[in-house]
Design brief:
Order of helices and strands: HHEHHEHEHEHE
Structural class: mainly alpha
Strand order of the largest sheet: 3-4-5
CATH class of the largest domain: Alpha Beta
Distance between the termini: 51 Å
Number of strands: 5
Shape: extended
Oligomer: single chain
Strand content: 5-15%
Number of domains: 2
Number of helices: 7
């Protein structure tokens, strides 16, 4: 218990994350695997006080996991932006076909087996995602060089020139394309700015 300012400042640590979990009515995590790793003490274990608060939330039924899911309006059987719509029984042909088409119009090497990272967020200097991508793009491309990772940027913003300069400096035009200039998307696709 705090006695006074001088005593508290140096000897009474404050944990804002644990305090936030304690104060929250409900806590959600993005995966059951992450939740388990925090709670079981293996791997990415939470500090003891945070773990105790998370366990309290679990026991009171106020800790949940959320499975990220695409917006229900994105249905590959009816999506007008796909060249070849597909269903569960035809996805093995439809998805690679659409990937090859994207690679073709983005002027990237066509290979349906390589992973493609699609970046639809605005290239805006005021958004933290842009800075994170700019700072890590080289590392990401290097780490996934063997797999041939390709990155496609399809949004406008005030950092477009910086992105082009970055791509040129990394000599990565064969794996990265700033495609808002080349890619024509229907105007009414939700979520694409």
């Amino acid at each position: 218990m705090p006695v006074n300012y001088e005593e508290t400042r140096n000897t009474n640590p404050m944990d804002m994350l644990t305090t936030g979990v304690f104060a929250a009515h409900m806590v959600s995590m993005l995966s059951q695997t992450f939740q388990n790793s925090l709670m079981d003490g293996n791997g990415q274990a939470a500090p003891p006080m945070l773990r105790a608060e998370l366990l309290n939330k679990l026991h009171t039924g106020t800790l949940s996991t959320i499975a990220p899911a695409p917006d229900s309006s994105f249905n590959p059987t009816t999506d007008r932006a796909l060249i070849r719509p597909y269903e569960p029984d035809s996805h093995a042909v439809g998805k690679p076909y659409n990937k090859l088409h994207l690679q073709e119009i983005m002027h990237l090497p066509m290979d349906s087996t390589v992973p493609v990272c699609f970046w639809p967020t605005r290239l805006d200097g005021s958004r933290p995602g842009w800075r994170l991508m700019a700072d890590t793009l080289g590392t990401i491309l290097d780490r996934y060089r063997k797999q041939g990772l390709q990155v496609v940027f399809v949004a406008e913003g005030d950092c477009q020139d910086q992105l082009r300069t970055l791509i040129d400096r990394m000599q990565a035009r064969d794996r990265v394309n700033k495609g808002a200039d080349t890619l024509q998307l229907p105007q009414d696709i939700p979520g694409v700015e």
